[in-house]
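U., I forgot to send this yesterday:
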Amino acid sequence: MDKIIKDKFKNIPIDDDTIVLYSQEAKFGELDVLYEIWIFDRVVKAQSFIFLKDDISHLKNEGLIKMINESTKHLT
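Result:
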C-alpha cells in the first residue's frame, strides 16, 4: 500500500479495552480508508471504516453511509 496512505492513519487512537484483530489500509472509490475488525471489552465484535475528516468533509453522512452499505451488502 502506498506509504502516503499508511502515514495518514498512523495516529488513529485505540481504546485500552479494544483489541484490533485486523487492520487494512485501502481505497474506497477515491477515498483513503482504514478498515478494521475489533473487539471491545472482550465482548463486542465490530467492524469500522475509518476516514479522515478532511477527506470526507464535502460528503453528507447519508451519502457516505449509502456508499458503504451498497459496497458491503454482498458480505452479509
